[in-house]
Design goal:
The protein has 106 residues and is mainly alpha-helical. The longest helix has 76 residues. The chain is elongated, with a radius of gyration of 41 Å.
């Protein structure tokens, strides 16, 4: 039974302390509560708009910037590849011509 009394005393003590602490709290007035609530909502909206604008800007930079660069690089690579193919074809034709000229000379 002594344990039960101890538990009851601890519960009473806890709620007594809890009530005493709540009395120390400085509660905001209704006007302060409205002002703080409006301030929080405005700040959240400003941050949301900022994030939206940055997201939109980065998406457009990706679409028109990076993809445009990719197409330029791909075009340059294909031109270089075509140039190499033309050079190889020219070398082959020249080799064949030399071989033919050698055969004729013999």
């Amino acid at each position: 039974m002594p344990k039960d009394n101890k538990v009851k005393k601890e519960k009473k003590h806890f709620f007594k302390d809890f009530k005493a602490e709540l009395k120390k709290v400085i509660w905001p007035t209704p006007k302060q509560l409205v002002n703080n609530t409006v301030a929080v909502i405005v700040i959240v909206l400003i941050v949301a708009v900022t994030v939206f604008v940055l997201d939109f800007a980065f998406e457009k930079m990706n679409t028109y910037g990076i993809n445009k660069l990719k197409s330029i690089v791909e075009t340059t690579n294909s031109v270089e590849n075509n140039t190499n193919e033309v050079d190889e074809t020219t070398n082959t034709v020249e080799s064949n011509a030399e071989a033919t000229n050698t055969e004729i000379a013999e």
